[in-house]
Here is the input.
Amino acid sequence: MKKTLVLVAGAALSITGVAMAEGGGNYHSSGFTMSDASGDNSLTVGGAALLEFGASFRDSDVVGDTDDLTQGFGNPLVRFRFGGHVGSKKFTYKVQVTSSEFDDSTSSGSDALAISSFQSDDVYGEWDMGNGWAFRWGQFNAPFAREITMGAESHLGTGFSQTSQFFGQGYSQGLMMTYSDDQMRFMGSWNDGFFTANTPFNAEAADYGLTARVEGIVTGAGFDQFNNPNSWMSTNGDNVLVGGALHYESGGETGGTTDYNAFAYTIDAAWHGPGYAVGAAFFGANFDPNGGTSENDYGINVYGSYFFNETVEGFARWDAIFLDSDIVAPTQDDNVHFLTAGVNCYPFTESNALRFTAQVSYALNDTSGLFNSFIGSFPGDNGFLGQSTDGEIAFEFQGRFIF
Here is the structure.
């Protein structure tokens, strides 16, 4: 009994010590850690929750008087994560489970609206091989769209951009080799293809997927400043990152798969300075089903943010998705544009632990053609429901905390 009390007290002191050290406005969402004296065995516990009010305003002549206004409250994301070391600081593990109203880990198309129960996202082990090299196995985001790899807790606004949501990768199961130094990093993965989280080996659409991404620092020092899309006022000088990625997957040669080939690519850049950030990404994707119509789509995402003071940040974004005219009806728009603007408020100075966001988005075009695509998913998680004419407006107010 005494030993049990000592162990419990020791664990409580470990957690309390971390909480006091991180404390208040200096807490940067790293979670709370328990560790043995050597640090070779540790457990960090954390998580996040996004709580919001959303409203979609659509044309009553198209959707009817009942559906022209849709509004209500929701929890777009509730997440718990566990990580640390086992046996050695060289071995790192992460287990993350999420409940999301937008099940973007396994779904595509309109099924992305399905409300999910808790399911695993990141579940992997990683071995530090030294000299900047590491080997990862398990389930993780394939290294493709940079905005997606930053994670669902790092949105500039209330959600991923429409373009990244449409072309992005979701979670995959597989292997990944990485290399990183102060100015360059590389990630190469052999996986089951995009959106294949929590599936057995005989349930994927593809035989295999191959993904590779490379990033470099043009000016500035280190990648930590690019872990989020914004840039605090304390940022030192101008820092520029450029990156690009390729993905190929193919199916139809093994049991349970679909006969198709898909190829996607992206080029992106980010510029962070004292209190401001600007970024852009270009996407291209080809989906070629056996016996079906080949599809080629393209996308652009441009965004910027600016801190008016230490706690209030404004942001704006333009998304454009250029659909293959062969997959949309003559009455549907094949070029779809979105404008988004909003304000973030950070109660704790230069901390992501707590944030409030007010955002309004406008669809300049008919979005019904997006439902025809084999490549991407729509609606995304920015409040749009979709309609067969232009002019849908989406408003969201979100409170987010990370612990």
Remarks:
- The first strand starts at residue 32 and ends at 35.
